[in-house]
Amino acid sequence: MKAVTTANRKARSLREFVRGLTDTAHPLLVQIVPIRRCNIDCGYCNEYDKVSAPVATDMMRQRIDKLARLGTSVAAFSGGEPMLHPDLDLLIRHIRGRGMMAGLITNGYFLVPKRIEELNQAGLDFLQISIDNVEPDEVSKKSLSVLDKKLKDLKDCATFDVNINSVLGGGIKNPDDARIINARARELGFSTSIGIIHDGSGRLKPLGPAERKVYDEVSAAINGPWQVLKNLYSGITSFQDNLADGKPNGWRCRAGARYLYVCEDGLVHYCSQQRGWPAISLEEYSLEHIRAAFDTPKSCAPYCTIGCVHRVSTMDFWRSPQKTAVDADLRETAHDLLGQN
Q: For the chain: N or C, fewer Cβ within 10 A?
């Protein structure tokens, strides 16, 4: 059963990859927030609160329907902690029923065998957990010692793909923890990634020598000879080489086009760290907005740490250079459509 599910998922992934190569006027990945509340509080995180109610299920279904009309390839639930939404499984089924692939970014706390099987039955395609340290501290409770049993249950029970992300920066105390976490995830057969995270204010800080050494070693392991096929997506890490040294990247950010972040209020933003831009209602978002955002440079791009935006933008690194301020017609169109000033 698991082999059949995996083969079907790979076929659908290949289909969406080919569609992404041949057509740029649709999102490859949308992260959508069904609830802002989270059950834990990590010191570097500015994406949660302790009080918000879940978005109404009917409203979430309407937003998913709109993503399907935009031609979205993958819709992934983010948060907050999306597993706090009482109708999450129904919403995953709705994504799959509309022909999209379904993803989930979770802190992992609610993953027990019964819940994992329910996610299997709902049709979940991908799940990611970011594990910050080996032992809990005041910065993060997303710890290997807390979550290792959950990882074993995922290995035994999950029919969906699992990615384990380890992190450096952002106040994480022990850089060697990233090496331990990444090695444990590989041992369990999961895809792996490493991220350089911002601090609680959203700012990037260069890695220190010990952090940089771990980053280089883990990146090499992620892209090692026996890991390349497993980590085709998560292994896109070269954009972090400059960030590790606090240096900018020159790249074409396709946020607002290939990647959308839809908050709990149903507004489209460039990403979780640029909430407020362009802040257009998803219901009003159109192919014209997508085309304008595809061609519009983002001032935040040089020091961007948002790995998913970098990775989906890689699809188009070779084409459509983004317009600069000398193109007055495009600038006026982008400002009108995307609300920039």
A: C
